[in-house]
Amino acid sequence: MPESKPNSVFYLKINRGTDISLKCFWYWVEIVEAYGADFFIIVDNEEVKYQIMNLYLSNGHSKAPKIIPSYRNQLKSVIEDLFSGKWINIGYALLTPFVHAKENNYSSIWNIDADDTMLFAQPQVCVSLLKKAEDHAIKQNIDILGLDFLYSIFCNRQLVRWTFGVTFANMNVDYIKVICDGKKTDYENSFSKFYIQRNIDDYFTYLRNNVK
Prior knowledge:
By secondary structure, the protein is an alpha/beta fold. The protein has nine helices and six strands, in the order βαβαβααβαβαβααα. The protein has a six-stranded mixed β-sheet with strand order 3-2-1-4-6-5, with helices on both faces. Helix 1 (about 20-35) links the parallel strand 1 and strand 2.
């Protein structure tokens, strides 16, 4: 069995080419470069790929970024069975890092929703905070750790909801297997009164609360 690569790898998801999305994306590129980590950009939109290449050139980067598409063939049966509406494409992009990292033997990953997420701190400050979070997760044997952006909205419903945005994961867990083994019917019953579309955030909330 190949030895795991010790350093965390970052996955930056982007699929929108608006000014604010590109600013958010470049903010994360600066964070990852300051972090000193390897990273991959997940993008399916061809126009956005072109914009990313131009962004790299305009910022003096001569080395081409590592761009990968979402793993639609590998994840099709999982995604379309669990999620619906716009969350199908979102699910492909957010689950791709788990498959890619497992295939390439990375021991841990940061999964970043890079086109609409920005922290109000300089990149070097964010690096320090992310490294503290990563160290905490490893020392406490936390499989997956996410910054919950929606707590203030959902706490009144007594539902501390998992959200993807900035997520760290130890790759000693087969996350796709956990997802497939989850009880879909119970998940749908748990959230049907709140939401119309079945989505990845709700499903991870269900897994966190119900699957050990």
